[in-house]
Amino acid sequence: QTQTLTMDEIREMRVRDIKRRLARTHGYSADELGRMLDKKELIQALAFEEHKDREKELEKVKRYVIVRGIIMALVAVVVVLGWPLWVQIYEVASVNLVVYSDKKMYEARRCIELGSVRGMVGVFLMGIV
User: Fold this and answer.
1) How far is it, in rounded angstroms, from Cα 111 to Cα 126?
2) Structure confidence by residue, pLDDT tens digits, 45-87
């Protein structure tokens, strides 16, 4: 991504620099540059090419903003429409976690009552997994 020149910057350039930039950056041939005799024509050509480049960059930015907006809108729709589902999933997961932790606590208490160290290690390892 190159920095585009403003009209003031182009006006301050020498004819040789304008021709070089037109040839290297914008693909002008030596014949096309040779036909432009006046510095005003060169300035106008370079300003036009720089304007086109600036417009292309702005189009890319606009396209990116539009795509990002569409994606955010879709995410918002999924969240809003799926909210009851997300709440249900959360409630089921929390109930299952409570049941699982109560079961592991019961197993741990039974191992302590029976004095089984191996059983406690097993309950601990299964709790981690």
Assistant:
1) 14
2) 989 989 999 999 999 999 999 999 999 999 999 999 999 999 9
Distance CA 113, CA 115 (A): 6
Tell me how far apart the terminal alpha carbons of the chain are, to the nearest angstrom: 51
Sign of CA dihedral 118, 120, 125, 129: positive
Q: How far apart are CA 25 and CA 84, in angstroms?
A: 56
Indicate whether this model's pTM tops 0.90.
no
Q: Which two three-digit tokens encode residue 107?
A: 């197993």
From the list 54, 58, 37, the residue with the least C-alpha distance to 18 is 37
Contact present, 76 and 35 (Cβ < 8 Å): no
What tens digit of pLDDT does each residue of 12-47 get? 888 889 888 888 888 888 888 888 878 888 888 989
SS3 per-residue string spanning 35-103:
HCCCHHHHHHHHHHHHHHHHHHHHHHHHHHHHHHHHHHHHHHHHHHHCHHHHHHHHHHHHHHHHHHHHH
